[in-house]
């Protein structure tokens, strides 16, 4: 009698294991159909508020400032040094800026009426990284620079 009881338990345990592994195998197979390569995306924002002097066709920075953020796949940074000057030109609702290192940035007016005072926006790709910049000239003596990087 004990032998029959032990045999019965063994059969039940064995069947349960086979059923669960079969069910698990089916789940694994069905999950394989939905496997995707999910890459992490860096969403980085940096900003700085810096005193400037707008004179002629130059934006002259009155103090040094910088800010940076590092992500898993990319980084985002902005910075200026005291006395550094950017050349700029206005063309209606367009603003072109050239840095001392030769980088050219083109912005579109998003606020303000005329002149350089107001908000300006730019969107460019550098490789696979999206860089969105926003310049806000609060006055001809103060500028807020914001950069958003996705990569």
In words, what does this structure look like?
The protein is α+β, with helices and mostly antiparallel strands. 21% of the residues lie in helices and 52% in strands. The chain is built from one helix and ten strands. The chain has one helix spanning 2-32, and strands spanning 43-55, 58-61, 65-70, 75-80, 85-91, 94-98, 104-111, 118-126, 129-139, 142-150. The strands form two sheets. An eight-stranded antiparallel beta barrel has the order 1-2-5-6-7-8-9-10. A two-stranded antiparallel ribbon has the order 3-4. A hairpin with a 5-residue loop joins strand 6 (94-98) and strand 7 (104-111). The radius of gyration is 30 Å and the shape is globular. Residues 18-22 have low confidence and may be disordered.
What's the arrangement of secondary structure elements?
Elements: H1 2-32, E1 43-55, E2 58-61, E3 65-70, E4 75-80, E5 85-91, E6 94-98, E7 104-111, E8 118-126, E9 129-139, E10 142-150
Antiparallel strand pairs: 1-2, 1-10, 2-5, 3-4, 5-6, 6-7, 7-8, 8-9, 9-10
Which strands sit side by side, in order, in the main sheet? Answer: 1-2-5-6-7-8-9-10
Largest sheet: 8 strands, antiparallel, barrel
Please provide the ordered H/E string of secondary-structure elements: HEEEEEEEEEE
Q: Overall pLDDT, averaged? A: 84
What general form does the structure show?
A: globular
The share of residues in helices is: 10-25%
């Amino acid at each position: 009698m004990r032998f029959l009881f032990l045999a019965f338990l063994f059969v039940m345990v064995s069947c349960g294991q086979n059923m669960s592994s079969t069910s698990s195998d089916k789940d694994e197979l069905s999950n394989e159909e939905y496997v995707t390569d999910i890459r992490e995306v860096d969403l980085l924002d940096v900003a700085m508020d810096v005193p400037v002097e707008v004179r002629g066709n130059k934006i002259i920075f009155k103090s040094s400032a910088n800010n940076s953020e590092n992500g898993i796949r990319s980084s985002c940074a902005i910075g200026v040094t005291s006395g550094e000057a950017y050349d700029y030109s206005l063309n209606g609702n367009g603003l072109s800026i050239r840095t001392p290192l030769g980088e050219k940035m083109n912005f579109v007016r998003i606020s303000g009426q005329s002149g350089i005072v107001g908000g300006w926006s730019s969107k460019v790709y550098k490789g696979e990284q999206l860089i969105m910049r926003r310049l806000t000239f609060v006055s001809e003596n103060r500028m807020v620079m914001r950069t958003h990087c996705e990569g």
